[in-house]
Amino acid sequence: MDLALKKIELINWLSMQDDDMIKKIEKLRKSASKELYENRMNQDIESKILRSELNIQQGQVYTQDEVRKYFKNKSTK
Questions:
Q1: Cβ atoms of residues 25 and 13 within 8 Å
Q2: Distance of CA 23 to the CA centre of its chain
Q3: Which of 16, 21, 28, 67 is the most exposed place for a label (fewest CB within 10 A)?
């Protein structure tokens, strides 16, 4: 059975369900979405931490004053 047919069957089945079942399915969907989002965010954060640590090791760091001056110059252009 292909995915499109499975989706159609699921939609047909959902149309026959009561409010309680729909709420349970919605809760499951939200939980799965939240878990996926949190996993993706954790991976992004870990990647940024590793990149930041590498920048520090390579001496690619700036003082707060240097950052302020950089953005001040950007805003005046």
A1: no
A2: 24
A3: 16
Residue 75 scores a pLDDT above 70? yes
The per-residue pLDDT for range 3-22, each reduced to its tens digit, is 999 999 999 999 999 999 99
Phi first, then psi: what are they for 60, rounded to 5°? -90, 70
Structure tokens at 24: 């349970």
Under DSSP, is residue 72 helix (H, G, I), strand (E, B) or coil? helix
The two structure tokens encoding residue 14: 């959902």
Q: What is the pLDDT of residue 40?
A: 85
Report domain extents, the chain. Answer: 3-76
Where are the extended beta strands (E) located within 25-68?
none
HSE-CB at 43 with a 13 A cutoff on CA atoms is: 6
